[in-house]
Design a protein that fits this description.
Low-confidence stretches: 1-8, 187-193, 195-202, 256-261, 321-326, 389-396
Structural class: mainly alpha
Oligomer: single chain
Largest sheet: none
Distance between the termini: 35 Å
């Protein structure tokens, strides 16, 4: 008997629903933010969008990745049948709870929203805790932090009307996930080299990576509690600046003369470039640049780095999640670049509010186009897989 395909078991449904929800978010938030519509929700538009991206879209994509990876990482069959259906159902219930928040008590909304991350942590923990694999355990830690961040988000929303620390804690956790997933870059480059012949070796891990990770985590910790005055603003800015340069140095080590790269590595490098950009923008905000730079940093990390990496993981997982990453086609390259362009437009809107009416719709349109295109691509790949005829990716 052939194993079930990702479209029928594992994480396939979460990839599809995550992509569709990402598109719906932008389609609702843009006109809401611009005052063109006024949905009846207990949350302001920015809080709703932040919650649904950080605790709805990205966790769904992480679920799609983890559940599809179960056979490769544990040797067990991927979840299927009623357990998978129930997990997807609690994710949908969380989204409906937020949509109907005006008619529900805040505690009820919070409990409905927390059902999915807790259930995912339980399912993933059951599969991965016994593997003693450091990367798997780190992913579980990220999920655990997300649960705490989501609880903090709802408490702050109830207590203050907006969430600052819960949002920042979630961003820090998902940036950690982004950096972990970026570790597939050497594997992608290795697959490219194997297909194209011998070349210069990929730069091995070094102290640069360790220093960049350590500084990044320390700077993010300070950024999370920055408003509490734990460190002088100039010291916070200096730490964020050092972390930004360290992340840039880490990214620079994956350069073409070390790893000849096709589109697969290029689009991943673009997503990763938003990580040091976010640190540098946050540093400038701390050093006197103003709150607009903090907003820009937040969008560099969320739309640019996390959104771009989410799309990379979605494409890789939908393609089968085994062996080296597939060579990017022109279509997948295009949707990655659309997300990067959307992030740049959103950053520009934060730094130049006078062009908000132009830049926000542009960012939303690019974002919607990227994730809807992936949803169509995912359906096509699932259809080819189900028929036993998977088309090879377009070569670089």
């Amino acid at each position: 008997m052939n194993p079930p395909s990702p479209s029928k078991a594992g994480g396939g449904p979460f990839l599809l629903f995550g992509a569709l929800h990402a598109a719906v978010l932008a389609a609702v938030w843009v006109p809401w933010f611009l005052g063109l519509i006024s949905p009846e929700m207990a949350l302001p538009p920015s809080s709703w969008y932040a919650h649904e991206f950080l605790f709805g879209v990205v966790p769904a994509i992480i679920a799609g990745d983890l559940l599809t990876a179960v056979p490769n990482r544990t040797g067990h069959p991927p979840p299927a049948g009623w357990p998978l259906t129930m997990l997807l159902a609690v994710w949908i219930v969380g989204r409906l709870g937020l949509a109907g928040s005006a008619a529900l008590e805040p505690l009820t909304v919070a409990l409905l929203a927390l059902l999915f991350p807790v259930a995912l942590l339980a399912v993933a923990g059951r599969e991965f805790l016994l593997t003693r694999n450091g990367r798997n355990l780190t992913i579980l830690a990220v999920l655990a932090v997300l649960v705490g961040a989501q609880g903090l988000f709802h408490w702050e929303l109830w207590r203050f009307g907006q969430s600052v620390h819960g949002t920042r804690l979630a961003v820090a956790a998902l940036l950690t996930w982004t950096v972990l997933e970026a570790g597939i870059m050497p594997g992608i480059a290795g697959g490219w080299r194997k297909a194209r012949g011998p070349s210069h070796p990929q730069a091995p891990s070094s102290r640069v990576d360790g220093v960049a990770m350590g500084l990044g985590l320390l700077a993010l910790g300070i950024w999370i509690v920055q408003d509490e005055g734990i460190l002088n603003e100039h010291l916070s800015g200096a730490l964020l600046l050092a972390a930004g340069f360290a992340q840039a140095a880490r990214l620079a080590r994956w350069r073409p003369r070390h790893a000849p790269s096709g589109r697969s590595v290029a689009v991943l490098r673009v997503s990763c470039a938003f990580i040091p950009a976010g640190f540098l923008l946050a540093a400038w905000a701390s050093l006197g640049g103003g709150t607009a730079f903090n907003t820009a940093a937040l969008h560099a990390w969320t739309m640019g780095a996390i959104g771009g990496m989410a799309l990379t993981v979605m494409v890789r997982t939908a393609a089968g999640h085994s062996g080296p990453a597939p060579t990017a086609s022109r279509l997948t390259t295009g949707i990655h670049l659309a997300v990067a362009a959307a992030a740049c437009a959103r950053l520009a809107a934060a730094l130049d509010p006078q062009r908000t009416m132009l830049l926000i719709p542009l960012a939303g349109a690019l974002w919607i186009a990227a994730f809807l295109t992936f949803a169509l691509l995912h359906g096509r790949m699932s259809g080819h897989r189900a028929s036993g005829a998977v088309r090879p990716a377009t070569p670089d």
